[in-house]
């Protein structure tokens, strides 16, 4: 399982792992892939600084990447703007009444935190500034092309830039802006995702950008067979995410019985694509929380970043309650294959072993 991207990044396998957990990112890098730390959860640049310092020290010198959330179009975010004041009372009332109906208790006094400010352009800029003080080899942007000056700054530091695309036209736009690697993320993926499935999307994007632009296949990838399929479609590697939520290392970030029960019992049909998480279409685990937002009397989700600010405290309460019937979790359709909790190293080993078995089987068929 070796493609030109392995030489580009100094990795053994072209398996890129997006994760909000530095423990998962480090374990993937140590196992020969490229761990990519999602930075959106860091409201405090000092906390990100400490986390990246930890990554520097716990990856055995192996490379890693970071993922930021930065729209190319720079929004107006003057400090005088009170974002909370832009959230309608109707939405606030709906959230509180829904939590009461679902039996979600409030957090203990003094617990909880403000909404995830990493969705704001200004905060994403601070994430970039912190990252450039460390040694990431890749900066990925979850909202397409970052501003051109950001791309140029990364290149000045010798860092490659990747951007997610859900359509060939988006991929072409990324390339025109100077993006180095396209992540072709299909409809099956967790989190922000488009409307075209991976089997169609990957060859569309590979053909559109041409042989000189590497493409990573993403969406619905959780086995070696699916890695092989992605490479067969023309991608030079894979971008994975959901499968790492079911690892032992991830429990350092999110650990309760309800969380584990929710994803280990789910099938591939138990997800929904909705705007209720961030304001943009994202795939989540289907629960009573997502169903409440789909009812006729529910308000329409707010645009990013207001929707996240609206539901941030609710998500903290839901996750703390540990109720698997309510828990809020961005996750892809691959959840149907996540039936137990395993170490990252075991997941990586299985991906590689099944890939090799699959390629060998195809070779025997060709003969």
From TrEMBL:
Task: Return the InterPro entries for the record.
Answer: Aldolase_TIM, NMO
- A single MF term (Gene Ontology): oxidoreductase activity
This enzyme's EC code(s): 1.13.12.-
What is the organism field in this record? Answer: Nocardioides caricicola
**Top-rank taxon:** Bacteria
Catalytic EC class: oxidoreductase
Give the protein name, as stated in the record: NAD(P)H-dependent flavin oxidoreductase
For the keyword Transcription regulation, the answer is: no
Which keywords, in A-to-Z order, does the entry hold?
A: Flavoprotein, FMN, Oxidoreductase
**Which SUPFAM superfamilies does its entry note?**
Inosine monophosphate dehydrogenase (IMPDH)
A Pfam family hit: NMO
